[in-house]
Design brief:
There is one protein chain. The protein is mainly α. It is built from three helices and no strands. Helix 1 runs antiparallel to helix 2. The protein is flat and about 30 Å long.
């Protein structure tokens, strides 16, 4: 999950995504996400023109 958030941050530069990654690093059990939601996020289009 953290790898996915880092990939999203590195491609968008969105500071909120970075802050989410830091939250996940500090306490990964705090956010209760199921595996299917993670799989769906991996298929999102990414704008590389930023």
């Amino acid at each position: 999950m953290i790898d996915l958030v880092w990939k999203l941050f590195s491609q968008t530069g969105n500071i909120e995504t970075y802050l989410l990654m830091k939250e996940l690093e500090s306490d990964p059990s705090e956010l209760d996400l199921d595996e299917s939601s993670t799989t769906n996020l991996e298929n999102l289009p990414v704008d590389s023109n930023m």
